[in-house]
Amino acid sequence: MFKGRSDGSAGLRYRAIQGKMNALFELGYFDVYHGAAPFNENPPDADMWVEAMEGKFEGGRPFEKRDWDQLLGHCMGVSDTPCFAFASELIAAYPSAKVILSVRDDAEQWKISMESTILSVVQKMYAPSLVGRFFSLFLPRDPLAKYGKMVVKYTRLLDIPWDYERIYNDHNAWIKSLVPEERLLVFNCKEDWEPLCRFLGKKVPERQFPRGNDQRAYLENVRLLEEQMGKKALGNMAITLGGFVGMVLAGTFTWTRLF
After folding, report:
1. Counts for the chain of helices (H) and strands (E), in that order
2. pLDDT tens across 150-160, in order?
3. HEC profile for 202-239?
4. For 117-138, how does the pLDDT look when each residue is reduced to its tens digit (9 = 90+)?
5. DSSP codes, 78-147
6. First to last CA, the chain
């Protein structure tokens, strides 16, 4: 979640990140990388992220600066998962980067935000019921599916409900240990424009500081993603189990009911 030429964001994923991304756009940072990019902007990114995670967590080839340049070199900044999992690598690759550590008032507030957004998706797709586990066998095995599964595994998203305080505090301490004070801003979105603009050397805009996606819009985007994945899974089920069985299941179940 860092960028050598301008700005980076090292906050753990939650809705306020979108608010800060909108704020950075207002300040002239028009291309800030987000973890959803492989799904809605450039699917081939998933292949590189899978390779990066295999290199860091599974004994593969570690990414070098040329790899990060290929994946992120077009961006003015980076944010969100899985970028924050590579904080040390990205800081080493871009040693002049300014880093923004996005925080909440406390770990409890962060957990609440996570539970109302991304965790609602992750728990359905990766920690489902027995019926859901059967259904998940038919999810597509393309790079995007592998990317999503690895992100959940290596960023400990499923551990948040029971270990949120340690995850939140350890992450913040880790980022602070990596970045010199003069290049680090610990930022809560409720602080508004002034500390962010001072850190980046920008004029304070007249517009109100953006507060991110409302929950309804976020959950609608989630619903569309679930529907897309569900249709692919039902199609695979029909091919695997035979047209008749697949049609019966498709008519009986929906993506959300299965979970």
Report:
1. 14, 5
2. 998 999 998 99
3. CCCCCCCCCCCCCHHHHHHHHHHHHHHHHHHHHHHHHH
4. 788 777 777 766 666 666 667 7
5. E-STTGGGGHHHHHHHSTT-EEEEE--SSHHHHHHHHHTTHHHHHHHHHS--HHHHHHHTTS--SHHHHH
6. 32
pLDDT tens track for 144-196: 888 988 998 999 998 999 999 999 999 999 999 999 999 999 999 899 999 99
For residue 232, give the amino acid letter: K
32 three-class SS: strand
- Residue 102 phi/psi, 5-degree rounding, is -80, 130
3-state secondary structure of 3: coil
Name the residue type at position 184: L
Q: Of 72, 75, 161, 147, whose CA–CA distance to 116 is shortest? A: 161
The DSSP symbol for 182 reads G
